[in-house]
Fold:
Amino acid sequence: GENVEQHPSTLSVQEGDSAVIKCTYSDSASNYFPWYKQELGKGPQLIIDIRSNVGEKKDQRIAVTLNKTAKHFSLHITETQPEDSAVYFCAAKENTGTASKLTFGTGTRLQVTL
Amino acid sequence: DAGITQSPRHKVTETGTPVTLRCHQTENHRYMYWYRQDPGHGLRLIHYSYGVKDTDKGEVSDGYSVSRSKTEDFLLTLESATSSQTSVYFCAISGRAMGFYEQYFGPGTRLTVT
Structure:
């Protein structure tokens, strides 16, 4: 089955700086890669995703890049703000038809300091 | 939380007792999922459903069963709860209106088995 590794496990940045979280996956057939943000006591919230036929996707201050050859993808947050502080999870979808079976990374706790 | 509710939100139970968690959606989506979240493991898929009465196992299905008799409800049952099943349980949905792949999570149920 799919295996997703995520680094770093914790990340502290100053407000206004950029943050980068990296994930690698094992199954070259995986074709969809979402990123989730989880605030304390809440469910994960989808913030951005990318499909295997795209190399980069941006949405305001966040962007995701995908390198299929190296089997890794990254989340980039620019101009970080205190409200970006949360736990971020990457995931990869197995290429098993329309059921969205996701394998998650172990999470990155991002802290944005003033 | 994308029209998803989970009940109960918190539960404390004793080892050996049966427990049923409920996930309810108002979106009429085809796919529903149960995950558990534990420190150091991210989210792991327990079971999922691809239609009424159609279910399949995920990565960590031992000790759990599921049922889906209506589109809107997906039940997770722990037949005989053990301390290793202490966790936070999340339900998620995906479907055609979301492009199939995008998965949205409920608020979670915190289960403690003493």
Remarks:
- The two ends of chain B are 29 Å apart (CA to CA).
- DSSP finds no helices and eleven strands in chain B.
- The mean pLDDT of chain B is 93.
- The CA atoms of residues 14 and 114 of chain B lie 5 Å apart.
